[in-house]
From TrEMBL:
Name of the molecule in the record: Phosphopantetheine adenylyltransferase
UniProt record similarity statement: Belongs to the bacterial CoaD family.
InterPro entries with a match to the protein in the record: Cyt_trans-like, PPAT, Rossmann-like_a/b/a_fold
Keywords (A to Z) from UniProt: ATP-binding, Coenzyme A biosynthesis, Cytoplasm, Magnesium, Nucleotide-binding, Nucleotidyltransferase, Transferase
Gene from which the chain derives: coaD
Gene3D superfamilies: HUPs
Listed pathway(s): Cofactor biosynthesis; coenzyme A biosynthesis; CoA from (R)-pantothenate: step 4/5
Lineage start: Bacteria, Pseudomonadati, Pseudomonadota, Betaproteobacteria, Burkholderiales
Gene Ontology biological-process annotations: coenzyme A biosynthetic process
Matching SUPFAM superfamilies: Nucleotidylyl transferase
Stated role: Reversibly transfers an adenylyl group from ATP to 4'-phosphopantetheine, yielding dephospho-CoA (dPCoA) and pyrophosphate.
Amino acid sequence: MGQPVIAVYPGTFDPMTLGHEDVVRRATQLFPKVIVAVAAGHHKKAMFTLQERIEMAREVVKDYAQVEVESFSGLLRDFVVARGGKAMVRGLRAVTDFDYEFQLAGMNRSLMPEVETVFLTPSDKYQFISSTFVREIAVLGGEIDKFVSPLVQARLMQKVRSLGRD
C-alpha cells in the first residue's frame, strides 16, 4: 500500500471565508491529509499580514485533525513537491473562475506532472462569496456574518477599525 495522498489547498485567504472552509471540509472527505497553503501574496496587496492570515486559518480549521496550515512564498510547485503533495485542491465558484483555474491547472500540470488538480465547488450558499467582496463589505460597514466565521468577522472588524475605515 502506498503513502497517503497529501492534498494542498493554496490561496491568499485574505480573509478565509465560509466558502474556503467548505472546500477544506470537502477536501478532508477525499484526502487523509490536507495542507492549507497560505500564500505570502507577492502579487496581491493583502489586508491582513501573512501571520494574521495563518492564525485565522489555523483557528478556522482547528477541528480537522488531518488539516495543517503552512505559509509559502515563491513557486507553489516548490512547496507542493517539498511536502510530497500529490493533489492540489482548487475551489470553483462560478464559470468565471473556471477559465482562470483551467489555465492555472494546465501550467501546474506542466510544472508538476505528478500532481493532479482537483476542483471542488462549495455549497450553493457559499458560491458567490469572495474574500474581495467580504473585505469591501466590511470596509463599507456592511454585515459580513453570513460570509465568514465569527472569529474571522471579529478580526476583520478589528482590522477595519485599525485602518480607520469604519
